[in-house]
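Hi all, a correction to my earlier message: I attached the wrong file for CRAL-TRIO domain-containing protein. Here's the right sequence:
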Amino acid sequence: MNMNSPFSSSLSLEHQLNLIDKLQLFKIQGRDKHGHNILRVIGKFFPARLVSSEAVNKYLEDRVFPNLDDEKPFSMVYIHTDVNRSENFPGISTLRSIYEAIPAQVKDNLEAVYFVHPGIQSRLFLATFGRFLFSGG
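and the right structure:
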């Protein structure tokens, strides 16, 4: 998700938003065992070479966060199956910038994050740096 990538610059912001929507990258679907809504993210659908972090943040702000109840906790399930660095992995710095753009109220309601099918590199990275990257400090 390099903002200077020739791929992301060739698509307008509106086209990027439509692509994210068409691929159903983010979807509120079902409930966990505690009755919380689940925000499902399918990593293999992530068009990392075609969309900017700006487009992802705008999509979340306009089309996902308004559909999460402001008062209720929710869980997120990220499915990492068939993700590869060259095609559909946005990179840790982009994930961090997306996380930082999440409004405080939404973060406060995020009860759990489930990372399904992480590869060995993802496991090692998350075990070493995950708490630091995805917490306040």
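Sorry for the mix-up. Confidence is low (pLDDT under 50) at residues 1-8.
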